[in-house]
Amino acid sequence: MRLLALAAAAMTLPATAVAQEAAPDPAALVAAQYDRTEDVATRIWEWAEVGYQEERSSDLLKAELRDAGFRVEVGVAGIPTAFVAEWGSDGPVIAILAEYDALPGISQTAAPTRDPSGLAAGHACGHNLFGAGSLTAAIATAQWLEATGTPGRIRLYGTPAEEGGSGKVYMARAGLFDDVDIALHWHAGDENSAAASTSLANRSAKFRFRGVSAHAAAAPERGRSALDGVEAMNMMVNMMREHTSMDTRIHYVITEGGSAPNVVPDAAEVFYYVRHSDADEVRALWSRLEDVARGAALGTGTEVEWEIIHGNNPLLVNETLAKAMDAKLRQVGGVEYTPEERAWAATIQESFGDAAPPLETADEIQPYEKSLGYGSTDVGDVSWATPTVGLRTATWVPGTSAHSWQAVAASGSSIGVKGAQVAAKTLALMAAELFTDPELRAAARAEFDAARGEGYEYRSLLGDRDPPLDYRR
């Protein structure tokens, strides 16, 4: 098993002596692995593999974990690129989540000016950093467990296809988190925060219309345009927006609409997302969306069917854990730029147009608060299976939006790696406290049980469908 010399030496001492005299600092164990974090993050960034196609990224993480002495179970929940890796025995089970999928349709080199890389995808949400940082945190925690003789199991969950594929939902549905005491996660961002932020529930589907092709000029009466069905649906949904509650978000793209104007398209497809802070409201909105699709097909003489692609429950906040994570993040501190990184970041900020936050924001920790976030994540389903807590770190230049070329650039830079190290240190410190503080674990579990309520039964927004392994093809 590959361990730091400090961890190996500590094994020669009684556990009590280690705890009192020579217990290694989890953050120091992370710092010693900077090169590993950078190497793994860079390679996953260069591969930029989209959801359920992350073969090389998944294999790299699994190889690193096996080399560090973890037991690795592959292909879990019917997903070839998903895995669960575990180190240790007995004691509490602390999980760390790792993501590694890229976003299609956006690419960028690591330059601070717009320079598409030519790839079909890019890490515009920083999941290369997420995967590498979580890997480092898990290995450092295993080293700390062995060095201190602390009972417990640290698990790294390799979770593919967060971007629209809901990989974690299938893993939660399969019961893979049922014996976990606490789950930890983090995400790339443009600031450092462990605030207790919830998320929106969401569901997506591809609506496929079928019509009749014909010559658009010579025989228009013979045609029934599938694109008309899509456009009629979009028009009615846009009218529906007026009659939804404030937390509602609905968005779509036409993914297929025909190839030539003089051919009536017999096939067209539109990809929809529906979001709301309440999962039951998503279900109610979805019923209305399906009625709109049926009406659009009826009105245009076409047929329609749809395939649900993904669905996430909202994050269940656990403030007991969030406040503890906030304290650990403040202990670690933020991201400090070198003069070269500061110049690089200033160039990025020139592309924002509007006033951007000061670069010093990257080295600050945002105030703790509870708030509603308007994004969605499949971490939400994990948070209903076990107490869950996360944080964000400044892997991107302050003012950067997720899903942008600026985010891709920073995710492939030294700034991104520094942010991932901040996250890894915070996670490792948090894990060490959870392993040694049963009162904290009990308080988090009590809050979790109260929030779910008596008689809670997990309900996925995906139903019983299999993972859509081809949704990005």
TrEMBL record:
MF annotations from Gene Ontology = dipeptidase activity; para-aminobenzoyl-glutamate hydrolase activity
Per the record, what is one GO cellular component? cytoplasm
Q: Where is the Peptidase M20 dimerisation domain?
A: 204-295
Q: Does the keyword Signal apply?
A: yes
Q: Which UniProt keywords apply?
A: Hydrolase, Signal
Q: Which InterPro entries does the record cross-reference, listed alphabetically?
A: Amidohydrolase, Aminobenzoyl-glu_utiliz_pB, Bact_exopeptidase_dim_dom, Peptidase_M20, Peptidase_M20/M20A_hydrolases, Peptidase_M20_dimer
Task: Give the signal peptide range.
Answer: 1-19
Task: Quote the SUPFAM superfamilies the UniProt record gives.
Answer: Bacterial exopeptidase dimerisation domain (SSF55031), Zn-dependent exopeptidases (SSF53187)
**Gene Ontology BP term (one):** folic acid catabolic process
Name under which the protein is recorded: Amidohydrolase
> Which organism is this entry from?
Alteriqipengyuania halimionae
Starting at the broadest rank, the lineage of the source organism is:
Bacteria, Pseudomonadati, Pseudomonadota, Alphaproteobacteria, Sphingomonadales
